[in-house]
Amino acid sequence: MKTDLLLESLKKYIDLSEKDTDLLLSLVRERRVKKGQFLVHEGAVSRCTNFVLEGSIRTYFVDLNGQEHIVQFAIEGWWISDLNSFVMQSPATFNVQAIEDSVVLELSFENLEVLYEKVPKMERYFRVLTQRAFVAFQQRVVQNISMTAEDRYLAFQEKYPKIELRIPQKLVASYLGISAEFLSKIKKRLKEEMGSKK
Amino acid sequence: MKTDLLLESLKKYIDLSEKDTDLLLSLVRERRVKKGQFLVHEGAVSRCTNFVLEGSIRTYFVDLNGQEHIVQFAIEGWWISDLNSFVMQSPATFNVQAIEDSVVLELSFENLEVLYEKVPKMERYFRVLTQRAFVAFQQRVVQNISMTAEDRYLAFQEKYPKIELRIPQKLVASYLGISAEFLSKIKKRLKEEMGSKK
DNA sequence: CGTCTATTTGAATGTACTCAAAAGCGGTGG
DNA sequence: CCACCGCTTTTGAGTACATTCAAATAGACG
């Protein structure tokens, strides 16, 4: 089953009985999204949080100059949404969009509340996940305030070696907070250094 | 009582019985720290998370060039720690240090586990807090990748008007990810613009 | 194949940093 | 009370990092 990926994720943090697992699975819904399709639109309330089974998703926003900036990528095994919009049920400030054709499990706000009530352990699961996500963003702030674009790119490659092969470099630049042209120049420089060292 | 500040924070997210409240208060410990004193040292395991009752605290790290970078400020009513070190009970990558003479309530990892077990609602409290902290850091990433230093400084002033009066500008620069000299130049420029507009 | 978008490259510009020096400020001791 | 010390802040000059704009090239897709 595809949902195995979700059960694996759960097993890392909590033990669920078969009954609780069945309840959880009854509360999520599989959804197929085509490349370019939106899961959340800026300004709308994000009613669901999404667990990626296949493909890749991005969360991004558009600044005052009309420029797009990528807040987060998600591939198989990751949850993605505009978290603030979802947990507060307030209008989203971000867009969530499929980069490739993808399959996700969506879990609605209402169903999550049911779940929390019937299976309090799920509070722990999402608390721990949120803590990990928090640490990841904290790490990113740290990198942004202390490293050059080149070092951030190298750190990105280190952290997401698999993602880079699947998405346009343009999106990587947008994630790193630099222009696509400059990323191109960084890559050229790195290649040349490789060459001269070998 | 000073602990009122903690109870207020709790009341925002969950309702606790008097008994549960008493249990919580029995598990925290008041601690006075002098300006410059450390709550967590890089490399050591953060055994406690801290709720600030008075004063101000900073979380920072030192990069490979020996330069300090501020990850987070905390004033009255905020929790602060090296969250990753605390929840994973692994060596801290950050230092946590008092900026002013301060008073905090410390809650140890062991006591927090007791608390979670006896008062499952506390899972919710910390899940929600972590979500809010997550959103704050996400916001900061967004600002770092899309705004100039001047705009980030203005956003900082907007968000923490009270902090700026209490801490050296040097620390603000470190938080923003710019040099102290450059912040000085930004402020000069802003003053001149103010003058010419009025 | 042709069209559209992504990537590369180069030149000119702007943003932010380093280094060095001067000015300001707060505490401390004589 | 003031003189001095140490630290923060300001200022200026020169430099490095990153952007914009424009044009050329390469890839992807129908």
Descriptive terms for the model:
4-stranded antiparallel sheet; homodimer; 198 residues; DNA-binding; Jelly Rolls; globular; alpha+beta; 52% helix
Explain what the structure shows.
- Two copies of one chain form a homodimer.
- Chain A is of the alpha+beta class and 198 residues long.
- The first copy, chain A, has a domain at 4-121: Sandwich (Jelly Rolls), CATH 2.60.120.
- Helices cover 52% and strands 21% of the residues of chain A.
- Chain A contains nine helices and eight strands.
- Chain A has a four-stranded antiparallel beta sheet. In chain A, strands 2-7-4-5 form a four-stranded antiparallel beta sheet.
- In chain A, a hairpin with a 5-residue loop joins β4 and β5 (68-74).
- In chain A, α2 (18-27) runs antiparallel to α4 (109-118).
- Chain A starts with a helix and ends with a helix.
- Chain A binds chain B through residues 61, 63, 67, 69, 71, 83-84, 87, 116, 120, 123-124, 126-128, 130-131, 133-135, 137-138, 140-142, 144-147, 174-177, and chain B through 61, 63, 67, 69, 71, 83-84, 87, 116, 120, 123-124, 126-128, 130-131, 133-135, 137-138, 140-142, 144-146, 175-177.
- Chain A binds a DNA duplex (30 and 30 nucleotides) through residues 148-150, 168-170, 178-185, 187-188.
Number of helices of chain A: 9
The strands making up the biggest β-sheet of chain A line up spatially as 1-8-3-6
The CATH class of the domain at 4-121 in chain A, by name, is Mainly Beta
Number of DSSP strands of chain A?
8
* Class from helix and strand fractions of chain A: alpha+beta
Strand content of chain A: 15-25%
Question: Mind describing the biggest β-sheet of chain A?
Answer: 4 strands, antiparallel
Written as H for each helix and E for each strand, in order along the chain, the element string of chain A is HHEEEEEEHEEHHHHHH
Oligomerization category of the chains in this entry = homodimer
* Average pLDDT of chain A: 93
Major interchain interface with per-chain residue totals: A-B, 33 and 31 residues
Rg of chain A, Cα atoms, Å:
18 Å
Helix content of chain A: 40-55%
CATH superfamily of the domain at 4-121 in chain A: Jelly Rolls
Low-confidence spans of chain A: none
